[in-house]
Amino acid sequence: MSTVGATVPMADMTASQPAAERRARRRMLPLVAPAVGVLLVWMIVPLVLTLWFSVQRYNLLNPALHGFAGIENYQYLVTDPDFWASLVNTLVLVGAVLVVTVGGGTLLAVLFDQPFAGKGIARVLAISPFFVMPTVSALVWKNLMLHPIYGIAGFLWRLVGLSPVDWFATFPLASVIAIVSWEWLPFALLILLTAVQSLDHSQIEAARLDGASFVQQFRYIMLPHLSRAISVVIMIETIFLLTVFAEIFVTTSGGPGNATTNLAFLIYARALLQFDVGGASAGGMVAIVLANIVAFFLVRSIGRRMDI
């Protein structure tokens, strides 16, 4: 009898918990509704307008040409060789920068976790490029570092008796990759250094006492510990690297030819150089779909790692 009597109140409490949670959510709704509404308007209105213009004939140089175009803008986009070249350039740029920043950031994080003289100053110098605006970074690299006549690279080439290289004409995409990697390497370093410092160093000491080399310690202890942080770095950087624009605009303007034209610059060229708003909007929709596909798989990958 006492067991049954104790069970009934417990069942009532369990049944009342969902109702209490629903009431709490209803009370919270007026508080979060303004912020959610602003975010929805902020995101949905541009998306709807972009989708609308992507199915319209809308060229600022020919206002008489207007009306519903259907999928003509998309057909023109996918049959344009510049689109596929820009897509390849975008993937190469994102992949190369991720390799440089994640690889270099991991090595620098392990290095800066070791005691050495001047470590504080070295950390500040390593992190400082992240706070430089992309336009300024591009100008510094274009005029101060890689200029064949006035740049430091040209001076060093002449110092050893070699002819200076015009990097942005000879290796345009590699030059842009170097600039963007220089900008994003400090971000990877910050995240990965925090992860390295959270590692239980007693594991390292135990492995060292067991005779493990530094390479073995890095491979079997540090790298598995950094896997989650590396996934976060890859996700955040990928989202931003898909929209790289300022570095290309300042240094090469998408050239020579379309050698450095990525998807973001192609959309800009369609909209503000060719004044084809319909075609640029179609490119924008393709970019949105591509970014969401990448984000979906990255978020799922990070979610699986978090569950481990």
Overall geometric form: flat
Residue-averaged pLDDT: 88
**Number of domain modules:** 2
Unreliable spans are 4-8
Structural class: mainly alpha
Our estimate of the beta-strand percent is under 5%
Q: What order do the SSEs take from the amino end to the carboxyl end, as H and E?
A: HHHHHHHHHHHHH
Distance between the termini: 45 Å
Going by CATH, the architecture of the largest domain would be Orthogonal Bundle
> Residue share in helices?
over 70%
User: Oligomer, anyone?
Assistant: single chain
Describe the largest sheet: none
Q: Name the CATH class of the largest domain.
A: Mainly Alpha
How many strands appear in the DSSP assignment? Answer: 0
The CATH homologous superfamily name of the largest domain equals MetI-like
CATH fold field value of the largest domain: MetI-like fold
Q: How large is the radius of gyration?
A: 27 Å
Instruction: Report the total helices.
Output: 13
Structure description:
The protein is an all-alpha fold. It folds into 2 domains: 14-54, no CATH class; 72-307, MetI-like (MetI-like fold, Orthogonal Bundle), CATH 1.10.3720. 77% of the residues lie in helices and 0% in strands. It contains 13 helices and no strands. The chain has helices at residues 2-54, 72-78, 81-112, 119-127, 134-145, 152-159, 167-170, 172-197, 201-209, 214-241, 246-251, 263-273, 277-307. The longest helix is centred in the first third of the chain and has 53 residues, at 2-54. It is flat and about 80 Å long. Mean pLDDT is 88; it is low at 4-8.
